[in-house]
Design brief:
Length: 527
């Protein structure tokens, strides 16, 4: 009976989007529909996780067409975990957006398109997490990307339109790579079903496997914003409204990471590109954080840290062991929550102080102690200070790498230790960059702002064409409540780290053996 709930995680947001569009002139009704839909999806996702964790993963064929011919929806522990954290974060950001919209009288959304677009984006995210074939995964990507184009350009300012154009072009290129890869894979194997491909891909010549493998990694690498395919992100995300930026930063890149996990553990389980992934992970870590170090604007700083910390996840995927995948999944959950929280807090800072640059802000600790705490806790978490979840996730990843270094399983030992060192340096620089911002914005007295010079600020640069925001000195209750709830969630990831890591370990146990996924889809064997 639980299996009938699986299609609802996509169907409910789509029906909710239609209802919200019909209710375009009744914003309160739109808000109620959107919040109800995401709450329902969160509950369904929890039920699905309980079912698959206590029993077997489930595969649902849509329309009665058996695999590999029909649309297949698959829910295992990894899918259920991603559904839960995504639904919770989307709901939290929605509440934040409601508070911001009510306070600003919806000036940034003169047409009631935010809520329908937001629900369509949610449907795309959920669909990507349960897609059992590459083409349905492609559809999920396109659904969320279509909605993201609208959300990114809300308000129609010149800055947002320019950023939107860049984002759209890059997304279209990524989609072109993905669609080309699907066409070539189908032409070579006769199927797009992920489980079926696990068997068929291994029968192809190694050079053909390499081409198909690289095409998928390029497509997903652009979406995940790994180096050198991450150049577009710092200029695109910071221009959007705070709730939109938070969702993009927290969730959209993780859909790409999720797709890479499925690619490496099921589709190309027998084809080894771990050394390449290890190198990409290390470069993503270092290049991203060095970019963050030179930013004066917190939105751009967080965008660069977002890119950088994707490197930890790529490293865990490259290690490829059960511990490596368990730590990666835990770190994905941590990063979705913490990165979203930091961007929401940045929205509060911008609203309260009128800017997001360390050259224009000071004295906010005295003016708003709560705001200082809301930024400080997730900043320490992202920087990897013990005992927060960021520290625990990184330790798990480093231990997985160290365990593999002796066996040279994931590549040469020197390469693994080099990436571990890069990850350690990245964590320290992240902590330095975020605490520097906190010190300047919250601790520094306002009378020191004019003419303030410091060696800390000699190398930082402002965001290009940074927008001027009128400081309100007030923060709506819903915005603060949503941000506080997510900060509490980041703390709970630490408090319940043991049970959560046990859960991710069980999820990882299914990933290291592709036969588990294949037998789920084809219980009577592949014909």
């Amino acid at each position: 009976m639980t299996a009938v709930l699986v299609p609802l995680v996509v169907l409910l947001p789509l029906l909710g989007a239609a209802a919200a569009l019909i209710l375009g002139r009744r914003r309160r009704a739109q808000m109620a529909v959107s919040a109800s839909v995401l709450s329902a999806v969160a509950v369904i996702a929890i039920v699905l996780l309980a079912a698959v964790d206590g029993g077997e993963p489930m595969a649902v064929t849509v329309g009665g067409w058996e695999a590999p011919f029909g649309i297949l929806l698959v829910v295992d522990r990894l899918s259920a975990i991603m559904l839960i954290i995504s639904a919770i974060v989307l709901l939290g950001v929605l509440i934040y957006a409601v508070g911001q919209g009510v306070a600003d009288r919806h000036r940034e959304t003169p047409v009631s398109i935010f809520y329908p677009s937001y629900l369509i984006l949610s449907a795309g995210v959920f669909n990507a997490f349960i897609a059992g074939d590459l083409f349905n995964l492609y559809v999920g990507f396109e659904i969320l990307l279509s909605a993201s184009y609208v959300l990114l350009t809300l308000g129609g300012t010149g800055e947002r339109i320019r950023a939107g154009v860049t984002y759209i072009i890059v997304s279209l290129v990524s989609s072109l790579f993905f669609l080309s890869a699907i066409a070539l894979i189908y032409g070579a194997t006769g199927t797009a079903n992920i489980a079926h491909l696990s068997v068929r891909i291994a029968e192809l010549p190694s050079n053909v496997q390499l081409i198909l493998h690289l095409l998928l990694l390029i497509a997903f690498g652009i979406k995940a914003a790994v180096f050198p395919l991450s150049f577009w992100l710092p200029d695109s995300y910071p221009t959007a409204p705070a709730p939109v930026t938070a969702v993009f930063a927290g969730l959209l890149t993780k859909v790409g990471v999720y797709a890479i996990i499925r690619t490496e553990t099921v589709i190309f389980a027998e084809h080894d590109l771990t050394v390449l992934l290890m190198i990409i992970g290390g470069l993503t870590l270092l290049i991203g954080i060095l970019g963050a170090l030179t930013q004066a604007d917190i939105k751009r700083l967080l965008s660069f840290t977002l890119v950088s910390h994707i490197g930890y996840m790529i490293f865990g995927i490259a290690v490829g062991t059960e511990l490596g995948y368990a730590a990666t999944i835990y770190y994905v959950v941590h990063h979705i929550t913490v990165q979203t929280t930091l961007f929401l807090t940045t929205g509060l800072i911008e609203r309260f102080g009128g800017a997001t640059s360390i050259n224009r802000l000071a004295g906010l600790l005295k003016a708003s102690p709560l705001l200082a705490i809301l930024f400080f806790i997730p900043a320490l978490n992202l920087g990897g200070i013990p005992p927060f979840s960021g520290f625990l996730g990184k330790v798990g990843l480093f231990l997985a790498g160290a365990d593999d270094a002796g066996a040279d399983a994931a590549g040469p030992a020197w390469l693994i230790w080099t990436v571990i060192a890069a990850g350690t340096i990245t964590s320290l620089i992240t902590l330095y960059a975020l605490t520097r911002f906190w010190n300047m914005v919250f601790w520094r007295r306002r009378e020191e702002l004019e003419g303030y010079e410091s060696v800390l600020l000699e190398s930082v640069q402002e965001a290009p064409e940074g927008a001027t925001v009128t400081a309100t000195r007030t923060t709506p209750v819903l915005m603060v409540a949503a941000t506080t709830a997510l900060v509490v969630l980041t703390i709970l990831l630490t408090v319940f780290a043991g049970p959560l890591f046990d859960l991710t370990s069980r999820a990882a146990a299914n990933l290291v053996d592709p036969d588990v996924y294949v037998s789920l889809v084809f219980p009577r064997g592949i014909r």
